[in-house]
C-alpha cells in the first residue's frame, strides 16, 4: 500500500478514564515526545457552577504545561455545559470536547454520553442553546455511530452539520458494542461524503499501517480529515506516534523508565504504593502486547497470569523487570485486548 501523508494530521491521545491521566500525560510527553493533543478523561459538570478539587487535578493549567490538552465534558444539560465551557475558557483552554460516546450503564440511563444519541430532539435543543451564546471557546464533539443501530449515524451527521462544531471525532461503534468487536469503519466510510465538519477518526488504530490506511480511507472527508485518535494501542505502544513521525520505536530501557516513572508518580498521588500497583496492572494489561515473539507467547501468558495475581509490591516490580528482560520487544503491538462481539 502506498504510504499516506500523515504530516498534516494531528495524532492525538484518546480520553481514557484512569489511564490518560495527568500523571500519564506528563510522563508520556517527557519520555516519548508529546502527542499533538491529549484529550482529558471526561468531567461531569454539576448544577453548582464550580469544578471540584478532584476535577481541578486534571484541569488545572499547571497539570498540562507543555502539552495541548483538550478537556471533555459529559452532560446533557445546556446550562451546566455553558458554565463549564466558560470556566474552561477562563482557565486558558481554547477547546472543549463534548462526550457523546460513553457507553456505561449509569451514564446511558441518564441519557448522557452515548445515551444522548438516542434523543436527537434533546440533542438538537442542547446544541441550539449552547451555540446561541457567543462561546469564548471552540466546541468539538466525540461521538459514537448511534445508541442502538449504526443506521442512526446518518441522521446524527445531518444534525452535527447544522452547528459550528470545531471538529467531529468518530468512534465508529454503537453503544451496545461497548468496546467489543471491530470498529465499524465501513459505516463511517459510507457516510463520509456527508460529513461537512473537520473529522477525527478513532477506534482500533493499532499499527503504523492502521494509521496510514485510516489517513488514506478518510482523507476525502469534505470538511477535511484533521486527526487520528488512538487510545488503547498507545498504552501498548507509547512510541506509536513517534514512529509515525519517522523516529525510533520504543526501547526496553524506555518501557522500564516509563513504568518506573508512572509507578512512582501514582504512588505519590495516591499516597499508596499498593493502589499504584493496581493502577500499573491496568497499563500492563495493554503493555504486555508489545512483548513476546510468537515462540514466546505461551511463556509470556504464564508470566502475565502471575503478574496480575501478585499482591506484594516488591514481587510485582521484579516480575515487571523480568518480563522486560526475558521477552522480545516487538515493533508493533498485538491486538491482544480485542473482545468478540
Ligand atoms: C478504560 C477506558 C476509559 C475511557 N474513557 C473515556 C472518556 O473518558 N471519554 C471518552 O470520550 N472516551 C473514553 N473511552 C473511549 C476511548 O476514548 C476510545 O474512544 C476507545 O477506546 C476506542 O479507541 P481505541 O481503540 O484507540 O482505544 C475510554 C475507553 C477505555 C477503554
Quick rundown:
The chain is of the alpha/beta class. Helices cover 43% and strands 11% of the residues.
Strand order of the largest sheet: 3-2-1-9-8-7-6-5-4
| CATH topology (level 3) name of the largest domain | TIM Barrel
Shape, principal axes of CA atoms = globular
Q: Identify the CATH architecture of the largest domain.
A: Alpha-Beta Barrel
Oligomer: single chain
Listed once per kind, the bound small molecules are: flavin mononucleotide
Give the helix tally: 14
Q: Would you give an account of this structure?
A:
With 341 residues, this protein is α/β, with parallel strands linked by helices. The protein has 2 domains: 10-244, TIM Barrel (Alpha-Beta Barrel); 252-326, no CATH class. Helices cover 43% and strands 11% of the residues. The protein has 14 helices and 9 strands. Strands 3-2-1-9-8-7-6-5-4 form a 9-stranded parallel β-sheet. Helix 2 (53-59) links the parallel strand 2 and strand 3 (69-70). Helix 1 (22-32) runs antiparallel to helix 11 and helix 3 packs across helix 5. The radius of gyration is 20 Å and the shape is globular. The two termini are 29 Å apart. The relative contact order is 0.12. The mean pLDDT is 97. The structure holds flavin mononucleotide.
